Amino acid sequence: MSALAETIAIQGTVLRHVLGLDLAPAAARLEGAERLWLVGTGTSEHAARLGAAMLASAGFDAQSSSAAGFDAAGRLAPGGPAGDGSAPMVPRLGPDDALIVISHTTETAFARCVREDALAAGARLLTITGEGKDWPEAIAAAPPERSETYTASYLAALLVFARLTVALGGEEWTADDLAALPGLVEGAGVEPLAVEAPPRLTVLFGAGPAAVTAREGALKLREASRVLAEGYETEYLLHGSAVPLTSDDHLIALDPGGDPSGLTASLADAAEREGIPVARLDPPPDLHPLLAQFPLTVRLQSLASRWADRQGIDPDTVILGAWADPSLWSLGAPQGAG
Length: 338
Prior knowledge:
Layout: H1 3-9, H2 11-19, H3 24-30, E1 35-40, H4 43-56, E2 62-66, H5 67-76, E3 97-102, H6 109-121, E4 124-130, E5 138-142, H7 152-167, H8 175-179, H9 181-189, E6 201-206, H10 209-225, E7 228-233, H11 234-241, E8 250-254, H12 263-273, E9 278-281, H13 293-311, H14 326-330
Parallel strand pairs: 1-2, 1-3, 3-4, 4-5, 6-7, 6-8, 8-9
């Protein structure tokens, strides 16, 4: 069994650990902040996007960005917009701003750079990392990932944000709602998704929070099983991106019934009329749309693991060849750092 499969299987246990963490000091650090900025890279950027949506539900001015985009926007035009639409408006960070950096390894170059800038500016700093790291402000949310296809650390970060939202006055869900998530995740991990890898392209799409899960699911499929996969916001898929799709492709519609506009379900129907296979993936009923992303994500993680196993691909060693060149991974690191 791959480390990926083993990690997917223990995610309920990891989430129960997160439920037991003392987050009161972290919540106190954020309380009263004028703006919250959440940054991360890759899977951690997806966690930042959903985390910002969670904290916004508690009344915070919360925005998310990739770590590289946040760094670039600040360097191009400190205190103003980047100018090219690639990142949100970035302020000169100060004591009334809070920056939350998500970096499981604490080694991601741009995440380290953004953290250093926040420390220099005297901003309120909070980080979410794996266990055993040396950032003193960190919430150590998950054990070290053993597979390069990250899974448990992602859900652990999301649960940290969901708990912080409650601690900071959010009323969209309760502590009891969060306590049910480990069991839902365990159930989702053993619920097979009857989708086979298509001859050409797998496209995942959803609205609102499900759009983030579509992108995260596509990333897992690409990493673990080396298939071509893309994730889209439903409206974006409609406006041109669906044009080249054929019967050699396969669409996965995420939570079509949860899209209040009906566009996700309607687009899935249109794809079938074009002869394109479509799977519809629904979360358990009566979950808040943001919490619904937990079981949806696990089902896509499990699909990626299954596809990797069927094709005899190692899902645990992902970054190979020229992509693994250390010089690429050090770009954007704080000055004077390796």
